[in-house]
Design brief:
This protein has 318 residues and is α/β, with parallel strands linked by helices. The protein has 10 helices and 10 strands. An 8-stranded mixed β-sheet has the order 3-2-1-4-8-6-9-5. The protein has a two-stranded antiparallel sheet with strand order 7-10.
Length: 318
């Protein structure tokens, strides 16, 4: 195996067992062991299963959320949201609405949208800059993430938040996120947020296979260390599946903020997603051919679905 193949195995093991992206130190350490022949995927996953992190994540539970007492955004840490999007007119309005009370500024890279995505974005006062790509370029997620990261860094953020155009913060996230970054974890650098794959109904999310309890690092505190971080190549065609934010050497906090993710909301979207990944990454051997994206449509009996309580989902989804 070459270096990229080894790192793909390690990253996938982190996601499978620890439900998070690999940190730099862990990626390099286990990569060296695999190159020496002292470790394989089975042994690595056993290490993770028996780790302190797997048994108990770094997280403070059952603590009351402090209210912000109607503080204005300019009195709170400056969070800049960054998006890389294309043809997201169905979801982008709700996504931007959900974070406009949290993020003082929003930066967007639009990759040649042909619908009304850009026009919708321009209606939001918090959207301070849009990089509008007009000419088609080969897919390179890392290239595009570097662009919006650098755009955000020029605006002196305290935090950077990464979202996709089909993702919406769950209602009542404002108090939670500011309580975490200001009170509960004032010295921590990166925060992983739970992705809830909303499925067929506005209050229903999928929990079978890998869909249950999945977290991505989406929020990072900016300081002298993190502002110099760099994105890494993913090892997949077009740098697909690259990390949303540059990796750090620190274990992330598991935030209580939920992201409602609509990329699999209905059958039409699921089929389009399946076709897209097969076009970008033919075969998809590391992801079982991406069959999980459409598996529930092929066999409904495998589906495991949970219901979100009132007040924790968006009702007016079309």
């Amino acid at each position: 195996m070459n270096d990229d193949e080894i790192k793909c195995i390690i990253r996938n093991s982190y996601l499978k067992i620890l439900k998070r992206e690999a940190d730099i130190d862990g990626l390099n350490y286990y990569s060296d062991l695999m190159k020496k022949g002292e470790l394989d995927q089975e042994k690595l996953e056993n290490i993770f299963i028996n780790s302190d992190e797997f048994i108990g994540y770094k997280q403070k539970k059952n603590l009351p959320v402090k209210k912000l007492e109607n503080k204005n955004l300019d009195e709170l840490p400056k969070i800049i949201a960054i998006y890389r999007i294309r043809n997201e007119e169905r979801w982008i309005k709700k996504s931007l609405e959900s974070i406009s009370e949290i993020c003082q500024e929003i930066i967007i890279l639009d990759d040649c949208s042909t619908d009304n995505t850009v026009e919708i974005c321009k209606k939001f006062p918090n959207v301070v800059e849009i990089y509008e790509r007009k000419d088609e370029l080969p897919l390179d997620e890392v290239r595009d993430k570097k662009i919006i990261w650098e755009m955000a860094m020029k605006r002196n953020p305290d935090f950077i938040l990464k979202l996709d155009g089909d993702e919406v913060f769950a209602p009542n996230s404002k108090d939670i996120i500011f309580n975490e970054i200001m009170n509960l974890y004032p010295n921590d650098l990166n925060f992983s947020l739970q992705l809830m794959y909303i499925y067929d109904k506005p209050n229903q999310w999928r929990t079978d296979a890998w869909f249950d309890d999945i977290y991505h690092i989406r929020l990072i505190r900016i300081n002298e260390y993190t502002k110099n971080l760099e994105f890494e190549e993913s090892g997949y065609p077009g740098n697909a599946h690259s990390l949303h934010l540059p990796p750090t050497k620190y274990v992330p906090v598991r935030s209580d903020v939920k992201i409602l993710h609509y990329s699999l909301y209905d059958k039409k979207i699921r089929t389009r997603k399946f076709d897209y990944f097969h076009e970008v990454d033919p075969g998809g051997s590391d992801f079982n051919g991406y069959k999980d994206l459409i598996s529930g449509d092929l066999d409904e009996s495998i589906l495991e679905l949970k219901t979100l309580p009132e007040g924790e989902f968006l009702k007016d989804i079309k």
